[in-house]
Amino acid sequence: MNSKEENTNSKVSNLENESNKQIQNDSNYNNEQTSDIELNEKSIDLENEYKFGWSRYSEITNGRFAMIGLLAIIIIELFSQQSFLKWAGIL
After folding, report:
1. 30 to each of 15, 36, 42, 55, 82, how far by Cα in Å?
2. How does pLDDT run across 3-48, given as a tens digit for each residue?
3. So what's the pLDDT on residue 67?
């Protein structure tokens, strides 16, 4: 490495260290960080609970069942060598 690159790298690392020290010295930073962690843990718990109606949990569950159904139709068509509608007797 040449001296210009070394100087640039050292300046960047010094700036990063100074900004990290300022953030860590800020007493509110630690409080905000711990409160963010607590909120994230609570939101994870709430997302996995069942709720009646339109919710994230319901949409994920319905999507998974739809994928299983589509996979079942594809497997039926592959093994029976005919369309699903004909296999089911609809056509």
Report:
1. 21, 10, 19, 33, 64
2. 655 655 566 566 666 666 666 656 555 556 666 666 666 666 555 6
3. 98
DSSP 28-65: HHHHHHHHHHHHHHHHHHHHTS--SSS-HHHHHHHHHH
Q: Are 57 and 47 in contact (CB under 8 A)?
A: yes
Please write the tens of the pLDDT for every residue from 41-74. 666 655 566 667 788 888 999 999 999 999 999 9
Q: In sequence order, what are the residues at sequence separation of 6 or more whose Cβ sits closer than 8 angstroms to the Cβ of residue 47?
A: 56, 57
71: which 2 tokens?
């996979």
Looking at residue 2, the DSSP 8-state letter turns out to be -
- Rounded Cα distance, 28 and 30, in Å: 6
